[in-house]
Amino acid sequence: MNLKARDIIGVGIASLLVFPVVFFAVLLGTGVAHLEFSDTSVLKEQLSGYLERFDSEQQQFDKEQSNLYKANVKMADSLEQAKKEIQEEIARLEALRAENAQLRNEVFAERERIDKLVDESKSLSEQKVQELAEVYGSMKPVEAAPILLNLDNVSIARIIKRVPEVRAQAKLMAAIGAMDNRRAANITKTLGWKKEGL
User: Fold this and answer.
1) Cα 161 to Cα 170: distance, rounded to the nearest angstrom
2) DSSP character for 150?
3) What b-and-e string marks burial along 15-27, b requiring 16 or more CB atoms within 10 Å of the CB?
4) CA-CA-CA-CA dihedral for 48, 50, 56, 57, to nearest 10
5) Tens digit of pLDDT for each residue in 84-105?
6) How far is CA 10 from CA 5, 17, 18, 178, in A?
7) CA-CA distance, 149 to 160, in Å (whole number)?
8) 35-75 residue pLDDT tens
9) Spatial contact of 198 and 158, defined as CB atoms under 8 Å apart
10) DSSP per residue over 26-49, as a string?
11) Cα torsion angle, 154, 156, 159, 165, sign
12) CA atoms of 165 and 133, how far apart (whole Å)
């Protein structure tokens, strides 16, 4: 059997055209479908009543849909505005966070600089106290005591503490006690209470 493409196409087209007719005939034959002929005036009345009812229902439905659409547009606008405000707030907070980090870094750097200066100052102060202790330790206690009494008790205690010899420390305290025994007692307390801080 030698079929050409033209024959196959022809059979396909014929099948497509004949199928609906055959299908409808089968439906009619089995009773699934049936044809009815009625008075057209009754049909027109039924159709016009349906259309009237449909028009009023459609208008109501259209009105509700329009109201819903307007409400949705309004809600979308308010959501868009809220989104915009949130994004602006996020940007503002990010800027504040960056500024805060920068200020924190500046404060940290300034604190380090101040700590360094304080350490240098303490070092210089300790060096100065040590030099004064050597000077007053080499002086006669009777000569050093009046000069030392011009300083505050803590400074006197720091200087005496750093005098190299214990015997020289004792002589200085005795000379200060001879001049002002109350201050000598306070200096002695300071020496005892603040050994580590001096």
Assistant:
1) 10
2) T
3) eeeeeeeeeeeee
4) -160
5) 999 999 999 999 999 999 999 9
6) 9, 11, 12, 142
7) 12
8) 776 666 666 776 676 667 666 777 788 888 888 999 899 99
9) yes
10) HHHHHTSS------HHHHHHHHHH
11) negative
12) 10
Q: Residue 85 is encoded by which pair of tokens?
A: 């405000």
Q: How far apart are CA 142 and CA 56, in angstroms?
A: 123
Delimit the domains of the chain by residue range. Answer: 122-193
CA distance 5 to 17: 19
Q: What integer pLDDT is reported at residue 125 of this predicted model?
A: 79
Distance CA 111, CA 136 (A): 36
Instruction: Name residues whose C-beta falls within 8 Å of residue 169's C-beta, 6 or more positions apart in sequence.
Output: 137, 160, 161, 163
Tokens of 111: 């604190």
The amino acid present at 141, given as its one-letter code, is: P
What is the reported pLDDT for 25?
86
For 16-38, write each residue's pLDDT tens digit. 888 888 888 888 888 887 777 66
What is the value of pTM for the model shown?
A: 0.40
